[in-house]
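Quick illustration, no need to memorize.
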Amino acid sequence: MPAIRRQIYIAASPRTVWRALTTAEGLMAWWADDARVDARKGGRIVLQTEDDEGNPVEERGIFHELRPIRKIEIAWDSNSTAPTRGSRILFQVAKDGDETVLNLVHSGGDLLEDEEQRAAMDKTWRQALLALRDALEES
């Protein structure tokens, strides 16, 4: 199964990174224009973004696994029109010296089967994780 794998080091505590991944305020600082989050196993996550033409896109998912300050797995709705449809995103958070290392694995879904679309999603994740680091290191 094809997957996107990314890793980034952030000069912030694991707790700060965790909040950026599991709260509406945190997600709106780097990923979404609007967010509704019920950060518990089985809880829903709904993110509002815009596509390249400025059209609204709603991403809907379920928190499949949550291990506070360590691991988050989100299963995205397969009926969505969002690029994440039918896929899973795994975030792993760990302290590394004075920084936090964040590992991302994005797998599954039809989108990731197509090499061109997978490359575009990989670019999107690279930009998003840099935006996350910028948001947390500037605060």
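The beta strands are 3-10, 34-37, 44-50, 56-67, 71-76, 87-96, 99-108.
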